[in-house]
User: Which sequence fits this backbone?
């Protein structure tokens, strides 16, 4: 029974891991941080679900738990950053939130940068809607906002992304 | 049907990366450990209804407090808010007789959630306990009460949040 439960959760993780990871990226500085955050959320959810039959949870609950863990992490991270301001980190690897489906998709790569630079409130709605495939009602449950707020934030985010994409394209053509 | 926004079309050409191998392994190992540590349930039908689970803990605490209060001797001169009375024991070697012995909870305060070293969320409750021993000197008949206050922190794993 215990083995079956672990297998069910692993299959659930394999199906949903990437979409949860990209949401967790909003709270971590690196993919490693995001994976740690996801692991913490899964640990909490495992214990929570034991009283409810032990099945993997619905995605809105997972998103809200990641958000809760992220807020805790953010508080401790702020304190840590103050201690480590003098240290310079050098990364020789590309640590990105999203990958283009096709290589050399310039437009998609530009938009990826624009998504990363969105404000956290707008970005989390875009991430949950686009890669989490959640409705505005589900997003409202996950992020503790009204469905109308979720929809308006999404529309506003798309406008900002369109504006930023135009700006990045113009800047690239000007420098070419 | 509404045509997708051009930005949505481009967003669809991006996909989230998979978890790293080490990250995936770490979470899967954790799931295996959790599954191994999970007690086996007898049958799904034996699950208690939600309201029973919600009220069982407070009712249990209330029943325990009632039982403890019933143990307090009614003839005691000072009635503590909550006390655990222990049978008295003579200490004849020193000429002192232990008349009564009790642990009294003076105050309780909710300290919120804390994380234990494993990262598990725990509900913390700070309890101020006063241990009071009443002694009588057999020669002089003087009765002395010795109080020893102490703070205790009770941690309970949080399974619902």
Assistant:
């Amino acid at each position: 029974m215990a083995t079956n439960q672990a297998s069910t959760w692993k299959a659930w993780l394999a199906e949903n891991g990437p979409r949860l990871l990209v949401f967790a990226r909003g709270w971590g500085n690196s993919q490693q941080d995001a994976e740690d955050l996801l692991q913490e959320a899964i640990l909490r959810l495992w214990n929570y679900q034991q009283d409810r039959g032990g099945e993997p949870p619905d995605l809105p609950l997972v998103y809200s738990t990641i958000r809760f863990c992220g807020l805790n992490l953010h508080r401790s991270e702020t304190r840590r950053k103050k201690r480590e301001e003098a240290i310079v980190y050098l990364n020789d690897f590309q640590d990105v939130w999203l990958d283009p489906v096709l290589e050399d998709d310039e437009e998609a790569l530009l938009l990826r940068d624009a998504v990363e630079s969105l404000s956290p409130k707008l970005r989390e709605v875009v991430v949950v809607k686009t890669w989490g495939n959640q409705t505005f009602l589900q997003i409202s449950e996950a992020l503790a906002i009204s469905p109308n707020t979720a929809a308006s934030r999404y529309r506003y985010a798309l406008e900002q992304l369109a504006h930023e994409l135009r700006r990045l394209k113009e800047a690239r053509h000007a420098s070419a | 049907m509404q045509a997708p926004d051009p930005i949505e079309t481009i967003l669809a050409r991006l996909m989230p990366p998979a978890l790293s191998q080490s990250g995936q392994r770490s979470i899967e190992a954790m799931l295996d450990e959790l599954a191994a540590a999970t007690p086996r349930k007898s049958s799904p039908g034996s699950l208690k209804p939600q309201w029973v689970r919600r009220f069982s803990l407070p009712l249990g605490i209330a029943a325990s407090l009632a039982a403890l209060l019933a143990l307090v001797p009614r003839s005691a001169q000072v009635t503590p808010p909550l006390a655990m009375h222990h049978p008295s024991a003579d200490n004849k070697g020193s000429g002192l007789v232990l008349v009564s012995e009790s642990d009294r909870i003076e105050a309780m305060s909710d300290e919120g959630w804390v994380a234990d070293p494993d990262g598990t969320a725990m509900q913390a409750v700070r309890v101020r306990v006063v241990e009071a021993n009443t002694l009588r000197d057999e020669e002089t008949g003087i009765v002395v009460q010795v109080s020893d206050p102490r703070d205790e922190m009770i941690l309970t794993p949080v399974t619902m949040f």
Remarks:
- The mean pLDDT of chain B is 71.
- Chain B has three helices and six strands.
